[in-house]
Amino acid sequence: MPDVTxxxxxxxxxxxxxxxxxxxxxxxxxxxxxxxxVHVLVxxxxxxxxxxxxxxxxxxxxxLEAAAEAERAGLPIDVDGQHxxxxxxxxxxxxxxxxxxxxxxxxxxRMPPTVRFLLEVTRIGQLLxxxxxxxxxxxxxxxxxTGPPVS
Length: 151
Hints:
The protein is an alpha/beta fold.
């Protein structure tokens, strides 16, 4: 049976030689994560929060700030998770906070399978409207314009 511990293979003198998944980086190779980001877009009828990359404890303060901004807007909230590569309990707590503080159900749009699994296991998914297709974003600004004129 192959050694899948990530330790050097028996009989090799090279400490970087490993036995395991062909997709695994060699033992000792640093794993580079996809830095996360959160952006809040306030339209005239909805607020959209766009999440991307790793949604984890490193983004905690940004997630709290985004939730507060969305709450202040007082509009229905969409959370676009199409580009999320990882989510830990910080991201789940963020979605739970939004869902319990919003007067309307929060729409979770295009969430990847790993995030859907987390929402199912934690039952936070019961508090959200999970949508596969993007219903479109509200590009109208709160003052009724669509932004600066294009020349």
